[in-house]
From TrEMBL:
<protein>
    <submittedName>
        <fullName>MarR family transcriptional regulator</fullName>
    </submittedName>
</protein>
<dbReference type="InterPro" id="IPR036390">
    <property type="entry name" value="WH_DNA-bd_sf"/>
</dbReference>
<dbReference type="InterPro" id="IPR036388">
    <property type="entry name" value="WH-like_DNA-bd_sf"/>
</dbReference>
Length: 98
C-alpha cells in the first residue's frame, strides 16, 4: 500500500482497535516512534481511545461483546485506538475504506 505514514496507521486501526504496540509491530516501527504520529491523529480527531461505553463502543447491545477486550473494564488495561467518523471519512476520500 502506498500513502503517508499517517494513512498507514489509519488503515491499520480501521481493521480493528489496536494498541500502540500492535501498531508498531504491524508497521515495523516502535511505540515511541509512533507516539508523535498518534498524538497528531488524536489531536486532529482521526482516532480516539476505544473504551467501553465511549463513542460507538457501547457494550450493552454489542454482538461482539464477548470478543471485546474492554467489555468488562471501566478503564481498559491496554490503550486501544479506534477510528473516529472523521478518520473513516478521510480513508474513504483516499479510496482506502469502503
Amino acid at each position: 500500500m502506498t500513502g503517508s505514514p499517517l494513512a498507514a496507521i489509519l488503515r491499520s486501526v480501521a481493521l480493528r482497535p489496536r494498541t500502540p504496540a500492535e501498531l508498531a509491530r504491524e508497521l515495523g516501527s516502535t511505540p515511541e516512534a509512533l507516539g508523535g504520529m498518534l498524538g497528531t491523529l488524536h489531536a486532529g480527531g482521526y482516532v480516539q481511545a476505544a473504551a467501553s461505553g465511549e463513542g460507538a463502543c457501547a457494550c450493552g447491545p454489542c454482538s461482539l461483546k464477548s470478543l471485546c477486550r474492554n467489555a468488562a473494564q471501566d478503564v481498559p488495561p491496554l490503550h486501544l485506538l479506534r477510528l473516529t467518523p472523521r478518520g473513516e471519512a478521510y480513508l474513504r476520500r483516499l479510496g482506502q475504506l469502503t
